[in-house]
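Most newcomers find our protein records easier to grasp once they have seen one. Nothing more is needed to start thinking about how sequence determines fold. Here is such a record, shown just as it appears in the course material:
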Amino acid sequence: MTEKHIDITIEEYGSLEEMNAEDQELVKAAIKAMGGAYAPYSHFHVGAAVRLSNGEIVTGANQENAAFPSGLCAERTAMFAAGSKYPDKDMVSIAIAGGVHGRVGMPASPCGACRQVMAQYQTKAGKPMSVIMAGSDQILKVRRVDDLLPMIFDNI
């Protein structure tokens, strides 16, 4: 038997101003994207912003539906829109912000399905995609999707 360890690095910021200008811009786009959420059931509005290799930012917001689980998370709406509109551009980073009546203090993290979609786009690009989770009291950043989803499923 061999025992292995997985190391995960998380950058923690107390405010948006501590981040570099590019990450600040992406987080602000995610916060703004929260306004496009359709969340009549959970009332939890989530916005996501994806930065592409050409510098373009594509946003998305969660969309709920009475025929649960027919809705879609903000992260996937943003990534699928980016993948559809710019199929030849890599996704470099994604920022996520969410909450009820504004952002929650602690950052909301992506669901498992969104993590897997992020992993797929990271694999397609052949290089890391950073993930920023922005709460009002704390912002967390990982440098690659693997830090949120170790042992990524990609065996097909």
Q: What stands out?
A: Strands lie at 10-13, 45-52, 57-61, 91-99, 130-134, 139-142. Residues 90 and 124 are 8 Å apart (CA to CA). The radius of gyration is 15 Å.
